[in-house]
Design brief:
This protein has one domain: Cytochrome Bc1 Complex, Chain D, domain 2 (Orthogonal Bundle). A hairpin with a 2-residue loop joins β1 and β2. By secondary structure, it is mainly α. It is built from 5 helices and 2 strands; from the N terminus they run ααααββα. The longest helix is centred in the N-terminal third of the chain and has 13 residues.
Length: about 130
């Protein structure tokens, strides 16, 4: 039995919409942020969380990352810092290193033109942080 093209094309398009690309969505990152970042960065990510005044240096305003980078969200630098920048040792780093416990659930993230295996939850956080830029 041959299916008419008018049936086949919409069916294939619907099937393609169901394929999981692996990239998390903004709500995944927002949930991670709410659970792990609000204490220092604040509810609106402006560096004004309840613990902010006790930290040196104070947490940055995460809504200004793109503005402070010539209008481009610095995905690679942001991920490197969150994941655990190897140039920062445990004595100089204020922010917790989240990367080591997340290495089993990786998704490809385009960082500067290179697909880079990235913990799913941190990929979601990047999506969220990029979405809140002012």
């Amino acid at each position: 039995m041959r299916l008419p093209l008018t049936f086949l094309v919409p069916s294939l398009l619907a099937l393609g919409a169901c394929v999981d690309t692996g990239m998390p969505e903004r709500p995944d990152g927002a949930a991670f942020f709410a659970q792990n970042c609000v204490a220092c960065h604040g509810t609106y990510a402006r560096g004004d969380g309840p613990l902010a005044t006790t930290l040196t240096p104070p947490p940055p305003d995460l809504t200004q990352l793109a503005r402070n980078n010539d209008g481009r969200f610095p995905e690679t630098k942001t991920l490197a810092y969150i994941y655990g920048d190897p140039q920062e040792n445990h004595l100089t780093r204020v922010m917790p290193n989240f990367g080591k416990d997340m290495a089993l659930d990786l998704v490809p993230v385009d960082l500067d033109g290179t697909l880079t295996p990235t913990p799913r939850v941190l990929a979601g956080l990047l999506v969220y942080l990029e979405s809140i830029q002012r």
